[in-house]
Amino acid sequence: MKDIRLEYEVIKDDFIKAGEASSKIKKVLKRLGVDPSVIRRVAIATYEAEMNIVIHSEGGNIEVVVDPERIQVIAKDQGPGIEDVHLAMREGYSTAPHRVRELGFGAGMGLPNIKRCSDEFSIESIVGSFTEVKIIIYQISKQSAQ
Amino acid sequence: MNTVGDLIKELELEVMAGDQEAMDKAVTGVYIGDLLSWVMSRIETGNIWVTIQTHVNVVAVALLGEASCIIIPEGAEIEQDTIVKAEEEGIPLLRSKLSAYELAVRMEACGIKK
């Protein structure tokens, strides 16, 4: 099987379209016959990554590469970057503004949720430049779902 | 009780969106919550989702979390974008005058467990 590559643009502050990239990714994985528990983990991770880009960034994109062994998700935005990545990874810590919290977002669970769904997780952020979250979820489970 | 259609009859829910196919979806349990990240990571396939959030993104969360339907309690106003999106995506969007707690009690009496 040839690797399948999907790429979606995510726009800053676009709450109307928010979640669409994740929904599309999920539909493709279903069509490919990926295991439902793996799809669920990818769906949660991509949704959280998508919302992070919508809420916190200047916009970005989500790239998914599917091969028979694993699914790799790279969510990269165009800044402003995270000052303290260690703090951002702490559950419950959030810099989301009040108007976003009123919509039920910004609970400080995004990055921890992404990490929990991943077999491999890495985050790189440069203030004033970008944040890139990269995760890998194996199709043949090396870790129980959650 | 095993479908969304049965639930609508039993709880006298107001149907805001959802076609017949969606009404035949099986109901497996219920999850109540308004914090979207929390809901995403906890809701199970086929769960009824009760939430007071009514903006359009609840449809994405319901889809990704594979909820069987969304119930908005306390007769809350629902944004038009949300109704349109739920219709497009085939997610039953329902409304009740009851509170989330009263809905939970009624659902328990109908045999719907966690």
TrEMBL record, chain B:
Is this entry keyworded Cytoplasm?
no
Keyword tags: Kinase, Transferase
Output the InterPro entries linked to this UniProt entry.
DRTGG, Ser_kin/Pase_Hpr-like_N_sf
Q: Does the keyword Cell membrane apply?
A: no
Q: Its domain of life?
A: Bacteria
Domain DRTGG residues, every copy: 6-109
Q: Which Pfam families match?
A: DRTGG (PF07085)
GO MF annotation terms: kinase activity
Q: What Gene3D superfamilies does the entry give? A: HprK N-terminal domain-like (3.40.1390.20)
UniProt-recorded name of the protein: HPr kinase
